[in-house]
Specification:
Elements (H helix, E strand, L loop, with lengths): L16 E4 L8 E8 L5 E8 L7 E8 L8 E2 L3 E3 L2 E4 L2 E8 H4 L9 E8 L14 E5 L9 H11 L12 E5 L5 H11 L25 H14 L34 H9 L7 E2 L5 E2 L2 E2 L15 E2 L54 E2 L25 H7 L11 H5 L75 E9 L13 E6 L28 H4 L3 E4 L6 E2 L3 E4 L1
Parallel strand pairs: 1-9, 17-20
Antiparallel strand pairs: 2-3, 3-8, 4-5, 4-7, 4-9, 6-8, 10-11, 11-21, 12-15, 13-14, 16-17, 17-18, 18-19
Helix pairs in contact: 3-4
Length: 570
Amino acid sequence: MNNKSSLTLLFFVFLSAFVQGRTLARETLYMLNYSQRNSTKLVDISYELNLPVGQTAEVSFSFSNDDGATFPVRCVSVTGHVGPGQTSGGKMVVWDAGVDWPMQFTDRGRIQATCVIEDTGPPIGNPIVFDVAEITFKASNIEESPSWFIKEFYSTAPSFIGIPGTPKKYFADKFEVTNFQWNEVVDWARNKGYDLQPVSYASGGENLPRTNVAMKEVVKWLNARSEMEGKMPVFYVDPMEGGWDENGDGKLSAGPDSMWPSPEEDMQMMNGTFDWSLIANPGNGKQEGWIQWDPNHNGQWDPGEPFVDRNRNGRFEPQEFDDINGNGRRDTNLTIVCRTGDISGWFPNYAHTNASMNMMGGWHIDMHVKQAANGYRLPMGLSWGWGRDDFRFLAMGGRTEQGSYQSWEDWMNPETMDPITGEWKQPMKTGIRYEEEWPWGKESPENKADIDEYAITPYGFSPASGIQPVGGRKPNGYGLHDMIGNVAELSMEWWINSDPTMAHLGSNPIMCNALGGSFKRLRGVDNFMMGPPPQNWDGAMYPGSVMSSGQSVDAMGSPEVGFRAIRVQF
């Protein structure tokens, strides 16, 4: 016996593992490696677990000093991935051998791992796999209907802002993304450069919607799913600087002027320090003592209209792009695929002094989206004014959009100007611009006797007490399940206000938009300035999350909010 105070373990690439419990069809504990740290009695142990989704195991270790003939020493002083509740993946453990086997020496040491499959209840059910509905896009031409909004937004957008044209088809998940489906993509992505993590859930939870997930993880997961299926990722770390054509000449300009004052100039106007000689043609837009910057309300500058002539040369030379990094040119970028971290992390990299407050007011996910990619993304969901209304189009399930054209402004303020066409309207008579139909017809969900057959809602014959497995109710006309209720679903609206100088505005600094309602409620739009409510509105709660701009939710996740992936073919 060699009287040394340190423990020496010869390192063997050798697996000594016992698996007990339910018999599995594949190797369960493998890649067992161990080595002693120099000049210490600490032993690093690593191993891999391969378990079915939702299954867990209890892992323990013992030590042999006779080449594995016996394992008399139980490893008790251990930290890391040891004990019950271990899930699939790579694991690390540290054993303090000086405590469990003190003042000893051997050159014949081995470590054995014991893996006991835990009894987690009834056998795991059949997980629902990815199933995508193919939906041909067809616009109804009813103004302000979902399909009209989609057609108008995509068909009129200039090419320099990255919009490829009107969609031809949608490929939408028939079900909200489940826990099992999340882990299936994560398992593929783990060795492909992604830092995604699997979700743990109890036995039988494989078909529950994936909830409590941060938006920054969802966009990486969607990229991974795209790559897993051989498609181009949609989301990129480096942003595209947005552009607009203020002067209507069909190209982007990089001049100093603008048809709108900047936030800094607005504040100078309010405190009386603004240099009014900067305003060209002020009288042409003055109404009741106020300057109307766009007198004909067509959204662009027309000759003779006022503008901020910052170089005082009498010509309108606007800057028509977001110069985020202050380099004087528009950067399209979208080259670095989002696989790790948080794609909004680019924002702090630009000092506020390099761009005006107008450019630093916030972050928007659209700057990071490659629209033409045929990969997976979230539906657009801002209706009644912003135009990208994929979610409401899919939720309606192909029912006819019909009715007369009237606006919210017509309803509330007769004989006022329509904000879209610029025309003056007479008082409305029909009470609604057009009628949207649900998959079953015009009847509102609150009044439908068999709503439980279509949705998990807070009302109906048996109101839900929590989220339910996907696919248990009737689909809509497109074959999509749970478009109303169960869990609300994230949309592409993700905005972060990273400028501390804007905090006084009271805006939520990290906001996502969720649609479709949840098992607890179907919230309507909170701010009617976003547009009119749907038919049957009586001032009470209505299923506005499908028909309106939805609800703001925490970007770090919510137990009521999941998501559904779509692809768009242009």
